[in-house]
Design a protein that fits this description.
Length: about 190
């Protein structure tokens, strides 16, 4: 089991992102962008070898992304309509994602065992997605799936005045990182 850290971006992903381990060592490079049909994010080992890719297949309310390992399609992930709690099935891999886009916490299962989990953390005054991956062979796809989930979460926050963080350190430890403000009332999820 290893913990990896993917930077939590405030804007759409463009360019290169370094994925690091718990000791801060560079493990992977994530290169590419989103937004248009057929856009691609590619994950490389630090040595430069291409490990996996995610390609955007469709746009709209429920976009689809295809996952590739060694240039072979291994799965498809499509957005579900859940807002507070989501259940997403990744066809081809038979992975089930359970989590909350509001809290940024997800667990991914295959059969009866956990493949990986995602939670927001603060390190050196910057927010990251902490991925806890049970098997190193699953790390490339776990990073790409986490990137897709982060992309969907950010697209849902187009009106930042409606979303507000309450003390992220305290709330994240309780799994409650965001409150919704609607007509001068606060509802904490």
């Amino acid at each position: 089991m290893r913990k990896l850290y993917l930077r939590n971006h405030a804007t759409d992903l463009h360019g290169t992102t370094i994925i690091r381990d718990y000791q801060g060592r560079s493990c992977y490079l994530l290169v590419g962008k989103w937004g248009m049909r057929h856009d691609v994010l590619s994950l490389y080992a630090i040595s430069g070898a291409l490990l996996a890719e995610v390609k955007q297949q469709s746009l709209g309310l429920l976009p689809k992304f295809s996952l590739y390992v060694n240039r072979q399609k291994v799965g498809t992930v499509a957005k579900s309509l859940g807002f507070v709690r989501q259940f997403i099935f990744i066809r081809g891999l038979n992975w089930i994602i359970v989590g909350s886009p509001l809290a940024g916490r997800y667990r991914v299962f295959q059969g009866g065992h956990r493949v990986f989990s995602i939670q927001p953390v603060e390190k050196t005054a910057t927010y990251y997605h902490e991925l806890t991956v049970d098997y190193q062979a699953d790390e490339p796809l776990a990073i790409l799936v986490a990137s897709v989930l982060d992309h969907w979460a950010r697209r849902g926050q187009r009106r930042p005045s409606r979303l507000r963080f309450h003390n992220p350190q305290t709330c994240s430890s309780l799994g409650m990182g965001i409150s919704l403000r609607h007509h001068h009332s606060n509802v904490l999820y």
